[in-house]
Amino acid sequence: MKDLVKVDSISQYNELKAIPTRHPLITAFDSSTAKPLHSGNFSFGFYAIFLKGVNCGQLQYGRNNYDYEEGTLVFMGPGQVVGIKSQKDYNPKGFALLFDPEFIKGTPLAANIHRYNFFSYELNEALHLSKKEQQIVKELFLKIDYELDQNIDKHSKTIVANNIELLLNYCERFYDRQFITRENLNKGILSNFEKLLHEYFHSENPKQIGLPSVAYFAEELNLSPNYFGDLIKKETGKSAMDHIHLKLIDIAKEKIFEADKSISQIAYELGFKYPQHFTRMFKKGTGYTPAQYRNSN
Fold first, then answer.
1. How many CB atoms lie within 10 A of CB 109?
2. pLDDT tops 80 at residue 67
3. How far, in Å, are 129, 175, 222 from residue 227 at the CA level?
4. Which residue spans of the chain are classified as CATH 2.60.120.280?
5. What is the CATH number of domain 184-296?
6. Hey, what CATH class is 4-177 in?
7. CA distances from 198 to 161, 207, 229, 243, 278 (A)
8. pLDDT tens-digit profile of 148-163?
9. Cα–Cα distance list, 178 to 133, 171, 237, 285 (Å)
10. Range list of β-strands (E), 58-156
11. Cβ distance 122 to 224 under 8 Å?
12. Is 24 helix (H, G, I), strand (E, B) or coil?
């Protein structure tokens, strides 16, 4: 990417923000006391959580622009690229927490960090907090900030990592609430997903592209794969891949009764490279092999 600025360490980030480095692997600060980043494209080598107190500029992530709004919580994972368009003469408010993957090594959080899918959500899928939720998040930020001001001892890492994990667990709860409160919007996404599934398997795509992935449908719906997958799971109780497989089996049941086609031909038309993979998936979903299903009906 043109003019990409790689910020690999916490100390490098602190230098850009003109704030002191209290710990080489983690930083927490009030944004109003820090220097704004200049406009440009940045890649961070660490986890970042930003709570914005006012509208303070526009970010670009992937194909989408996103305006920070009051009470918005944004997450970024290591290696993500974000474009920042800074406004001149503004005084940002809010809190920021950034930590290197090395900081949580050896803690329970290190084993669980992969489950927090929102670190790979796009910026337009940010978490919007109520006033009460904002207060909970701020209190946890302040606890971490307080701990970083103390002399480091054998308890420091555990206490800070536990507070980060508690913050992330609250954010999981808040995202669940956000999925529920956006029920009407989610139903529209579900409807469009079903439409896209139908169109895909009734086109030449299976032959030309192969079996569709969750990422394919997420891109068609302008969502990140993890956000899309989480939304489908929360709304239906089934994963997006489960929906793809169910649709695939429904279409396969129809095609199996086309007596002039072999099972191998049907497998190819559905996007399978190898007929045995189709047979295995069909039997798992129905209890019958394709040939058994054809003969029994």
1. 21
2. no
3. 17, 10, 10
4. 4-177
5. 1.10.10.60
6. mainly beta
7. 45, 15, 18, 11, 19
8. 999 888 899 999 999 9
9. 12, 10, 16, 32
10. 58-61, 64-67, 72-76, 81-85, 94-99, 127-128
11. yes
12. coil
